[in-house]
Specification:
heterodimer; A: mainly alpha; MetI-like fold; 11 helices; B: mainly alpha; two-stranded antiparallel ribbon; 74% helix
Chain lengths: 267, 319
């Protein structure tokens, strides 16, 4: 019995090493004083990071990504809240079908979504590619994630609270802002963070739908071809990894904390 | 509904209340639904439409034709040999890449399930403290940049990569091993690594839902641990495991990033062909046809898989 437990624990530890190992090499080599990502390590340096400050095209791409990710997070959460309310509170005829339709972007390969949007934008509507087209594609793939986060939060507290609020004379609008929204706040925040991360890291749709201006992942991809750009890529990659890890932990902690409590506004 | 009920005022007011509720529900749903229809249903319809058109240089010929689909299966007397399999097609690239992508994806999916299942089992049955921390630890990689996770493998497996330089530094090899990167194996490994975190959660949820008293009952009735696992745990966790397999298989067939970064010329997949037809060869209609055939074949494989494992039976038992 004790041996069996040990085996699974050993497996779990090896698994985590396998999961994180390759990715953790990136910051290791970024801090290494060498032009190739090779062992043995030569020495500690921060020059790869300080060089980033002078890279204007990268900073521009970063700003684009930031702008897109913030607007996508807000927009998909704003669309997700009423939809999640409708699907979790109203027993709608055809609700299950609508929900499956909404979750489709999760299972369609993103290249198909990308080329489908490309076709309708360029060949049918004749719209020029820009950061707007990238953002609209991102809303589509963020929406299912935002909705499932919001729905699990809305299903986590008693709908009787909302009925009581209605019985006590609140209009549905008042009930929403005084009761539902504060209670759903942890879900809303984690939906915002999820939307931000997905959009910020998304590559395939951005690659197909961006015009002259690029996002950070598209910029990064364009640099991967040049071996001499490797140290800069490693530094940028490390920063992106650290940033998204912090955001994911924040999103998960807020969501988990929120799930344990049903006090309004309690994070 | 009988006539008597229809004329009953109470039931009629209940009906109108229900309809009003439905209308309010759909009103709340409509913004998201409109976005989804405008940005998913219509573009996919446009893709289907485009696949029936033809590209003549820079002009788009809008007369409906099946030529794009026909070109994918036009036979030729001269076979193209791929791994000993003759393809009697005049344009064999899509067929070969499709089969290759399916095989690579299936291999990666099997690897993912084999890797993820013990981990999910560990989370559900062994972890008692800090469960939330373990789950966050598993989910972080899935949310961090896909591009970077794939690129990390290029650093690991590359000609001047971590493995080669590491082995050289300790003196095990003299010159770098070339077989590590730029082949279908590297693509499959990278795909498995990128998606394994995604597969753990559905399996974990279905394991966590298993009523522990069923396991006790099996043990009390004399099942060994292995028999108990095979007869109780495994069948009850099947829905989550199947969901995990589908969530990995469906998107990986069309993956574009992984084969581009670690595949090299030998590791290309069907997604590379779609990208090439759209952005480089300027033949969007043929690209659209390839993308649609790819989706249909994925759906077909999924349907065959669900039929083969008797998914209907599993669902019936769950209800």
């Amino acid at each position: 019995m004790a041996k069996r437990i040990d085996l699974l624990w050993i497996y779990a530890i090896l698994f985590i090493m396998f999961l994180y190992g390759p990715v953790l090499l990136m910051p290791v080599f970024a801090l290494n004083d060498g032009t190739f990502a090779t062992f043995p390590l030569k020495g500690f340096t921060l020059k790869n990071f300080s060089a980033m400050a002078a890279n204007t095209s990268m900073i521009l791409a970063f700003q684009n990504s930031l702008r897109i990710a913030v607007s996508v997070a807000v927009l998909s959460t704003a669309l997700g809240i009423p939809a999640a309310l409708a699907l979790s509170r109203f027993r709608l005829p055809g609700g299950a079908g609508v929900q499956s339709f909404m979750m489709l972007p999760l299972v369609i390969p993103s290249i198909v979504i990308a080329v489908a949007l490309l076709v309708i934008l360029l060949k049918i509507l004749g719209i020029q590619l820009s950061l707007w087209t990238v953002a609209s594609g991102h809303v589509l793939i963020c929406l299912p994630f935002c909705m499932s986060v919001l729905m699990s939060r809305l299903e986590g507290f008693d709908p009787a609270l909302e009925e009581a609020s209605g019985d006590l004379g609140c209009t549905p609008w008042q009930t929403f802002w005084r009761l539902t929204f504060p209670l759903a706040l942890p879900g809303v925040i984690s939906s915002l963070l999820m939307g931000f991360i997905i959009s910020f890291d998304e590559f395939v749709i951005s690659f197909f739908l961006s015009g002259t201006e690029t996002t950070l992942p598209v910029y990064l991809f364009s640099q991967l071809r040049f071996p001499n750009k490797l140290p800069g890529v490693l530094a940028l990659g490390s920063l992106i990894l650290v940033g998204s890890t912090v955001l994911v932990i924040a999103a998960e902690v807020i969501r988990k904390r929120g799930a344990a409590s049903s006090n309004p506004g309690d994070l | 509904m009988s006539i008597a009920e229809e004329t009953d005022p109470v039931s009629r007011s209940r009906d109108t209340a229900a309809i009003r509720r439905w209308l309010r529900g759909y009103a709340l749903l409509s913004p998201a639904l409109v976005v989804m229809i405008a940005m998913l249903a219509l573009p996919v319809a446009a893709l289907v439409l485009l696949s029936f058109w033809t590209q003549n240089g820079f002009e788009l010929d809008r007369t409906p034709t099946l030529a794009n689909y026909a070109s994918l299966v036009t036979p030729s007397a001269e076979p193209t040999i791929w791994f000993g399999i003759p393809f009697y097609l005049s344009y064999p690239v899509p067929a070969i890449l499709m089969i290759k992508s399916i095989i690579m994806s299936l291999t990666a999916t099997v690897a993912v399930i084999l890797l993820a299942y013990p981990m999910a089992y560990f989370l559900a049955f062994r972890v008692t403290r800090n469960k939330a921390m373990w789950i966050i630890l598993i989910t972080i990689p899935f949310w961090t940049s896909y591009l970077l996770r794939v690129f990390a493998w290029k650093i690991v497996l590359g000609f001047n990569g971590a493995i080669n330089s590491g082995l050289k530094a300790i003196g095990i090899i003299d010159k770098p091993l070339e077989f590590l990167l730029y082949n279908p194996g590297a693509v499959t490994l990278t795909l498995a690594h990128s998606w394994v975190a995604f597969a753990i959660l559905p399996i974990y949820v279905s394991l966590e839902k298993i009523d522990r008293s069923l396991l006790e009952a099996a043990s009390d009735l004399g099942d060994s641990r292995l028999r108990r696992f095979l007869r109780v745990t495994l069948p009850l966790s099947a829905p989550g495991t199947i969901a995990a397999a589908l969530l990995v298989f469906i998107p990986t067939v069309g993956d574009y990033v992984t084969p581009t970064l670690v595949g090299g010329p030998g590791g290309t997949m069907i997604g590379n062909l779609v990208q090439d037809l759209f952005l480089k060869q300027n033949n969007a209609p043929l690209g659209a046809a390839v993308a649609i055939v790819m989706m249909l074949i994925i759906a077909l494989v999924v349907a065959i898989f669900l039929w083969a494992i008797g998914y209907g039976r599993i669902r019936a038992r769950r209800q």
